[in-house]
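My current task is to audit a protein record that another person submitted. What it holds is a sequence and that sequence's fold in token form. Thanks in advance; the entry in question is below.
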Amino acid sequence: MELSQSLSVEVYKNLKQRIINYDLMPGQLLMAQEMAKELGMSRTPVREAMVRLREEGFLVEAAGRKFRVSSITWKYITDLYHARILLESHSIRQMKNQDNKKFMQKFTENLKQLSENIDRKDYQAIFENDAEFHKLITNCCENSIINDWLNHLHDHQMRIRFISIHADGRVTKTLQEHQDIYQCLKREDYDGAVEKLQLHLNNVLQDLEKSRMDKAGLIHLMINS
């Protein structure tokens, strides 16, 4: 039983990363038997992993006890960003009531790493830097419920970040927008930081929308209306 559970966790991590990286594309049909053969193991741990991924929204059930990689809908993306705007804005406003010096050095290091990774065009590292920057914002709030909600959405957000590579100039604009938020936080202008945060997240949505409407673009093929 322990071996089966261990294999199931291994398969779960493997499939989730392949979904996030678009090695498995939205809408792609997956069969436990074929996947088990590919991975060189029995069907049971593979199906257990697929059921777990279905529960987390990465897979949906298909006819004949099969699964499909879940689609990325435009409504889901907009809902996610609107929720982030509310939660992260609230987190920044709460910073007025506490000592934030311990976080400022972390913001500085994050922006330095982001700049270096942009120069190297290391997109995986760029995505992690981006996620860490926003996690620092919510960590400042020290609200465990908000952090739990956003952690739950982290891997879904990573799927969207991989799409954003193809939004024209988005990576460079993200660096500048993060720096603008940081400068407001540094001088304890929390209302300004909220304004810059909301502008940043709305700009990301607008860039994704522009790319989505380009019928020749990859984003159009990945996102359902």
Q: What stands out?
A: Residues 190-213 form the longest helix (24 residues). The longest strand covers residues 59-62. The radius of gyration is 19 Å. The chain is about 75% helix and 5% strand.
